[in-house]
Specification:
Length: 225
């Protein structure tokens, strides 16, 4: 099931047996029930090891979202051998990407939101299959030179994440990025409007999105290269 590709996931279209949404302030955690899931959302997950080491093997898991978890790093991610999309929201203790290298063979979408302490290393740069990278409200980035490590990237978003040197040209110089999201800052050498225009001009005629519709609503997914 490829619902994980949609910008907005329609969970109502996913069979109940393949997904769970746990708020651990209200429910008792039963990790053994996770093993055959393809989609898992956890709220307020408190790991004894502050990583993934106390979760079971989930060989079918395609999508994992953590909200308000106490993660410090991603050690133990080798448990998710099929993972395509990882979303980390408000896990404010996350400080580094240790363990992320274990997701390199499969991961295509990475969303990291509200991590002012998070620092990237070569582990994140190992994710050569990434097509979507969102680093929103994260720690300051010295520059955007690291984008060269992601040869398949289509979307890069860094809303409310400052780029210290202000140079946004690496986005335009990247061969495959077609969509971006940012806020205007005085020291940036391009406004968000200018950046969008230049990307559109650079990739004129190159379709990269597929609109997906149902019952009067729509979302999109990126076209396979």
């Amino acid at each position: 099931m490829d619902n994980w590709k949609n910008n907005t996931i329609w969970f109502e279209d996913i069979p109940a047996a393949l997904q769970r949404d746990f708020d651990l302030k209200e429910e008792k955690l039963d990790v053994e029930s996770f093993r055959d899931l393809e989609y898992l959302t956890l709220w307020h997950y408190k790991s004894k090891f502050h990583n993934f080491e106390d979760l079971p093997q989930m060989k079918k898991l395609l999508y994992l979202q953590l909200n308000w978890s106490n993660q410090v790093d991603l050690v133990g991610a080798e448990r998710f051998t099929a993972l395509k999309r990882l979303e980390l929201h408000y896990c404010t203790r996350l400080t580094n990407d240790r363990g992320m290298v274990d997701l390199a063979p499969t991961l295509q979408h990475l969303h990291i939101n509200q991590y002012k302490k998070f620092r990237m290393t070569d582990e994140l740069f190992s994710l050569k299959n990434l097509r979507v990278l969102r680093l929103n409200a994260c720690a300051e980035l010295p520059n955007l030179d690291f984008l060269k490590h992601f040869p398949k990237l289509i979307e890069f978003s860094f809303v409310d994440t400052n780029v210290k040197n202000g140079d946004l040209m690496p986005i335009l110089e990247h061969p495959t990025i077609q969509k971006t999201g940012t806020l205007n800052k005085k020291h940036y050498n391009l406004s968000s409007k200018e950046l969008d225009h230049l990307l559109e001009e650079k990739h004129t005629g190159k379709a990269y999105k597929l609109v997906v519709k149902k019952k009067g609503i729509e979302t999109f997914q990126y076209i396979k290269e």
